Amino acid sequence: MFRFDNYLTLSSEFLPSVQRVWRHRIVDTSMFAVTRKLNALKPVFRAQRQKKGDLANNVKLASTFLNSVQDLLAQDKKCSLLLLHLEFCCKMILRLATRLEQNMLLQRAKIAWMKGGDQGSRIFFRKVAKHRSSKKVFQITNSGGQVLTEQQDVISEFVAYYQNLLGGDRRDRVIDLCYLRPWARHILSKAEVLSLVQPVTPGEIKHAVFDIDEVKAPGPDGYSSGFFKAAWPIVGEEVTRAIVEFFRTGRLLKQVNTTLISLIPKVATPTVVAEFRPISCCNVLYKIITKILVQRMRGVLDKLISPSQNAFVPGRPIGDNILLAQELFHGYNQQHLPPRCALKVDLRKAYDTVEWDFLRAVLTLFGFPAQFISWIDECVTTPAFSVCLNGSSHGFFRGARGLRQGYPMSPFLFVFIMQVLTLILHQFIDQDGKFSYHWRCGEVQLFQLGFADDLLLFSKADSSSIHIFKWGLTVFADLSGLHVNPHKRHLILSRSATAQRDTLLPILGYQEGHLPLRYLGLPLLASRLSIADCKPILWKLDDRIKGWDGVMLSFAGRVQLIKSVLTALQVYWAMAFILPKTVIREIEKRLRSFLWKGCNGVGYAKVSWQ
């Protein structure tokens, strides 16, 4: 498979090569012309990459030659001007070779948090090796329990699984959700509708291009956003025409919407296909279109989405949900408080099983204009998939359902879908009249906390309220295709509600859950945070530091890792809890040790100030 290496943009040959191909005129649609020219550039970049040779070896040769020249200088008592000039040239060559190698390793290691790390550091090599090894699959267990070890059998199992999950027969139902409008928080106004369908501008397109990270995995065409950014003075005008053409015609070229499914392990040692997360790698042209659509949707999210849903809504931090959930669970271990309960619900294969006809109905419900819906529909419903396994692309099939994980628009569309669940539950609660709110939730009518597909439902511990939750989730599943994961559903009862356990659990068929409960990476507790509750943060810090064992990092490099990675864990926990002093001292001890000693525990002798 072709992959564009961002380091090629540093070459003096890069822009002239692009210019020679781009000046050819192709009589067809602008989008087709862009894809043809991108294909024509592939052999050019392959040749340039081959010409550059082994970048690591180039660095070694340049370093060896510089050392030889400096040895001659050390022996030359007159300091010859020729040798000084040669040393300067060798330094420039070494600097360029190092920069090319670092640029390549940054892209392949996908170290987005380390834009200016240690030059030549082994952390890049370790990251690349780890990234490659984690994605290698040598055997897999199929649905019948048979372990497959032949490479072709493994490939066939993956392709068949995702073809069954994402492909198959499409459901084309006529779904009308407008009966839920009385419970909707907001319906788009005329001014908001006009802002969504206004003509796209060149500035909007350029902003979308330069907002895509260069280290993000490329789509099937192999080009990263780094190519488009570096060549924008040449390719910008035609790319802009191609994007404008989509918004004018509403039609997307098939090859632009092809997608590579990259497999990310969910667990340390996955044994079945379901233990991999499918991340969709889309082409940059497609990402540009979806980023423009997302940017327009951002402005109306806050008005349309209930305050109880915090995922991906601008201005709503994740900490709000955690703090509120913690407050509601506080006192669950006390007998004298009113009986109450909570359902922790996780949806099975949430993004991958969304029905497209339901998505259209959702957007219509909230008042999105027909033209905007048609743009989204064209982007969502026209993909073709291949599975990327062990460095090669396998299979080719059309999609029939689902929102692709890993591309810009999916999270925002999913939030709208989950808002419909809120409306369905709201309708049942109002019409049934027998629902009893959780203690301290009646005045604000709070019954749900959502973060994407991670749900907490709260009520009084009685059968009427639990029945409403069950009906709402069932109706939502029939409409959307999103079903509750049978292995990740729990009913948590307060101590005062234990007498209702035998009544409530059979209604739902859920397992009984117990506090502390993990929610968005933090423990939910019925009482104060103890030192024992904080052990996960210390374990995670130790794991991160051990992961850098053997990496030759400078002092400045370790400072960067502490600031970018390690302290983020403490900040996340401190957002929801007042950490015990003992835990804070333990965290500081680990950070201090890593800063001064690194991973191998060898530090410097401390010197007295006096």
TrEMBL record:
Give coiled-coil spans as residue ranges: none
Which CDD domains does this one have? RT_nLTR_like
Which residue intervals define the domain Reverse transcriptase in the entry? 245-524
InterPro entries (alphabetical):
DNA/RNA_pol_sf (IPR043502), RT_dom (IPR000477)
Q: Which SUPFAM superfamilies match?
A: DNA/RNA polymerases
| One Pfam family hit | RVT_1
Domain of life, source organism: Eukaryota
The record ties this protein, via PANTHER family, to: OS12G0587133 PROTEIN, REVERSE TRANSCRIPTASE ZINC-BINDING DOMAIN-CONTAINING PROTEIN-RELATED-RELATED
Its recorded name reads Reverse transcriptase domain-containing protein
Q: What is the lineage of its organism?
A: Eukaryota, Viridiplantae, Streptophyta, Embryophyta, Tracheophyta
